[in-house]
Amino acid sequence: MQSEEKFRYEEHFKTSKFICKCAIKLRLSDTTLASACVLYHRFFKHCSTTEYDTYTVASTAIYLATKIEEEHMRLRDVVNVCHRTKHPQSKHLEFNAEFWDLRDTIAACELLMLRVLKFDVTYIHPHKYMLHYLMSLSNLFHRRVWETNPISDVAWAILKDSYLANSCLDFCPQVHAIAAIDLAIQSCKVEVPLSNKAETVWWKALYNNCTKETLAHVKNEIVEVYDISSDVH
């Protein structure tokens, strides 16, 4: 990865982490968090960080995502949480000039984001597929093995982390979910029962259009998120 490209990657990685921190403080769902990250990454597919402040765009993405996922938050709360997260030593914003400037900036940026994305802000999440796939897989494992290994928790954590990089925009939602589960299974050092005897590999049984090459590619992209995170402070 070239130095300039790596710098941009790390910059977006940091800002995506900022989105995650804000989402946790606002108690947003995983799907709203995912939508916010997707909106942020899609925006910067079209625009440059030299033209727009990444944290302003991130704050706007959070606010717009709450509307898209019908998890409505007051703009005032989004402004305060994002400001405190970016400036942890600062005090709670009063209704002063700084607050209204931030509020108006996010409101204006929301319209800009919608125009840049041509008002196409719908997104098919892998989360519903993940839930279905995990339920199906749990039936294959012995109950004790499934309960003593945090496959489900690890898979959800991996899925959430995968949104830190813009590579998530290129993933098919079904394969995205399967890749997170497969990485979780590998992390827990377990094997899907009867894998050697089954005519069809488990991930192919879950999603017939999934190929070995595509799955490997998505898994490698997700692993790269963890590789680059060690260099980001």
TrEMBL record:
<dbReference type="GO" id="GO:0016538">
    <property type="term" value="F:cyclin-dependent protein serine/threonine kinase regulator activity"/>
</dbReference>
<dbReference type="Pfam" id="PF00134">
    <property type="entry name" value="Cyclin_N"/>
</dbReference>
<comment type="similarity">
    <text>Belongs to the cyclin family. Cyclin-like FAM58 subfamily.</text>
</comment>
<protein>
    <recommendedName>
        <fullName>Cyclin-Q</fullName>
    </recommendedName>
</protein>
<dbReference type="InterPro" id="IPR048053">
    <property type="entry name" value="Cyclin-Q_second_cyclin_box"/>
</dbReference>
<feature type="domain" description="Cyclin-like">
    <location>
        <begin position="17"/>
        <end position="115"/>
    </location>
</feature>
<keyword id="KW-0195">Cyclin</keyword>
<dbReference type="GO" id="GO:0006357">
    <property type="term" value="P:regulation of transcription by RNA polymerase II"/>
</dbReference>
<dbReference type="InterPro" id="IPR013763">
    <property type="entry name" value="Cyclin-like_dom"/>
</dbReference>
<dbReference type="InterPro" id="IPR006671">
    <property type="entry name" value="Cyclin_N"/>
</dbReference>
<dbReference type="InterPro" id="IPR048055">
    <property type="entry name" value="Cyclin-Q_first_cyclin_box"/>
</dbReference>
<dbReference type="InterPro" id="IPR043198">
    <property type="entry name" value="Cyclin/Ssn8"/>
</dbReference>
<dbReference type="InterPro" id="IPR036915">
    <property type="entry name" value="Cyclin-like_sf"/>
</dbReference>
